């Protein structure tokens, strides 16, 4: 695939930190709520833990009814993923997108939705469904009077072929360029999954910086966010 420049269309500013020591200027910390594990606490306990630790933002990887019910009234800002398995139907059918918004967002008026991630690290032929699905979900949100909820997608950090200097930034694959243009028109951020610990683990000699946990930062116009966790 040809490398396509994106700096003129979308300014990407990746914001990283650690739970142990994060910059004083960061006013919001978000933690990913992964559920692939054993003996996990229930959603209500998780929400209470967030609130007790001052964590005011969360990401969930699918429309989890139990988590959404627990979040109602908590004022915890939420990124919610659209499962990759839903991309095809949402891309091909505006009515399916409207139904998804009705069942998973409008049905939970007490939840502080901030971003919808349409796909997570999508690869292969399914990448063709990302932008049509984003458009349909965005249109459904606007039609429902929920245009304040921004629609994006979450990419692997290696989606960027060049990252320094920022003015020379390029996407690795062609399909990202129209997605960047769409995000620029809606004012939504691009979501990137970043795992600095693994980079450090594989190359400790040349990476003097302190390793940090897995992160999912928001970029572009998003407010400052810091997250950790896996799906």
From TrEMBL:
InterPro entries: GH (IPR017853), Glyco_hydro_17 (IPR000490), Glyco_hydro_17_plant (IPR044965). GO terms for biological process: carbohydrate metabolic process. Coiled coil: none annotated. Keywords: Glycosidase, Hydrolase, Signal. Residues 1-28 form the signal peptide. One of its GO terms (molecular function) is hydrolase activity, hydrolyzing O-glycosyl compounds. Belongs to the glycosyl hydrolase 17 family. This is Glucan endo-1,3-beta-D-glucosidase. The lineage of its organism: Eukaryota, Viridiplantae, Streptophyta, Embryophyta, Tracheophyta.
């Amino acid at each position: 695939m040809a490398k396509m420049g994106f700096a003129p269309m979308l300014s990407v500013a990746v914001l990283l930190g650690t739970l142990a020591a994060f910059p004083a200027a960061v006013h919001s910390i978000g933690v990913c709520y992964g559920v692939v594990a054993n003996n996990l606490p229930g959603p209500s306990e998780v929400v209470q833990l967030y609130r007790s630790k001052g964590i005011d933002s969360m990401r969930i990887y699918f429309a989890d009814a139990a988590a959404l019910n627990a979040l109602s009234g908590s004022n915890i800002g939420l990124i919610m993923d659209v499962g990759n398995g839903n991309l095809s139907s949402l891309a091909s059918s505006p009515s399916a997108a409207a139904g998804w918004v009705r069942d998973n967002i409008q049905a939970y008026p007490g939840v502080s939705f901030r971003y919808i991630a349409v796909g997570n690290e999508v690869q292969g032929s399914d990448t063709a469904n990302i932008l049509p699905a984003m458009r349909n979900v965005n249109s459904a949100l606007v039609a429902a009077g929920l245009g304040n909820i921004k629609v994006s997608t979450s990419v692997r950090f290696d989606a960027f072929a060049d990252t320094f200097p920022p003015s020379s930034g390029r996407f690795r694959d062609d399909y990202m360029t129209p997605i960047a243009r769409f995000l620029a028109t809606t004012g939504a951020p691009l979501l990137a999954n970043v795992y600095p610990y693994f980079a450090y683990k594989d190359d400790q000699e040349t990476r003097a910086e302190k390793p940090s946990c897995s992160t999912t930062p928001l970029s572009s116009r998003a407010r400052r966010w810091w997250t950790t966790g896996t799906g």
